[in-house]
Amino acid sequence: MSLIPCSDCGREISSLAPACVHCGRPTVPVRAYAVAPYMAAAPVACPLCSAAVTHPNARTGGAAWCERCGGQLIFGTDGALVRAVPRSSVPLVHQPQHVQQVVYVGKQKSVGTAIALAFLFGPLGMFYSTVSGALIMCVVTLFAMLATFGMAIFVTAPICMIWAANAASEHNRRQAYALNAAA
After folding, report:
1. d(CA 57, CA 151)
2. DSSP secondary structure letters along 48-110
3. From CA 172, how far away is CA 183, in angstroms rounded?
4. Tens of pLDDT along 14-44?
5. In which element (H, E) is residue 111 found?
6. Mean of all residue pLDDT scores within the chain
7. Which of the pair, 182 or 3, is modelled with greater confidence?
8. 3-state secondary structure at position 18
């Protein structure tokens, strides 16, 4: 199975689909459809290009497509041709698409709280604003403190506070953007 463009509306459809899901144009020739003997109708000459068009269910009304010019032939319930619409003026019929929109509404994070927690607890306080940043800073702080006999805390603590404030602010900005995009 592959995707091919519809010869009428140009959208991509499955090569196995019997008709375009967007505009309804058949993808296989009309004569490929099974015709019940009691429903068979004589071929009608397309008024647009004079090609023979057979509509399998002509007695129940509906539409058929001319294979040569692409025009739409509309049949009445008595099997008579009611109207022929050229391909360029056939309106595209779009199926209603039910799109489920998910809106995440979460709480904003306080930048002040993020700074205070990072000041009091170092990298562990960063878990409030950023989990990945907290894990990174826990590893960095651990190795730096081992290498400097605990003096690295004076360097890593301000870095943790700045990173926590930036992460909380970025979280709030992304959330405001998502809320505006959903509206």
Report:
1. 87
2. TT--EE--TTGGG-EEEE-TTT--EEEE-TTS-EEEEE-GGGPPP-PPP--PPPP----PPPP
3. 17
4. 877 777 777 777 776 544 444 444 455 667 7
5. helix 111-121
6. 79
7. 3
8. coil
Q: What letter represents residue 103's amino acid?
A: V
3-state secondary structure 112-159: HHHHHHHHHHHHHHHHHCCHHHHHHHHHHHHHHHHHHCCCCHHHHHHH
Q: In what order do the strands lie in the sheet with 62-65?
A: 62-65, 72-75, 81-85
pLDDT of residue 164: 96
Q: In the prediction, which pLDDT does 38 show? A: 46
Q: How far apart are CA 67 and CA 109, in angstroms?
A: 62
Q: Rounded distance, CA 164 to CA 125, Å?
A: 8
Residue 3, strand partner residues: 14
Q: Point out which residues pair with 14 in neighbouring strands.
A: 3
In the block, which residue shows the tokens 């003997």? 37
Strand (E) or helix (H) holding 166 = helix 153-182
Residue 6 pLDDT > 60, yes or no?
A: yes
Amino acid at 5: P
* C-alpha distance from residue 63 to each of 39, 89, 133, 151 (Å): 15, 15, 62, 83
DSSP 21: T
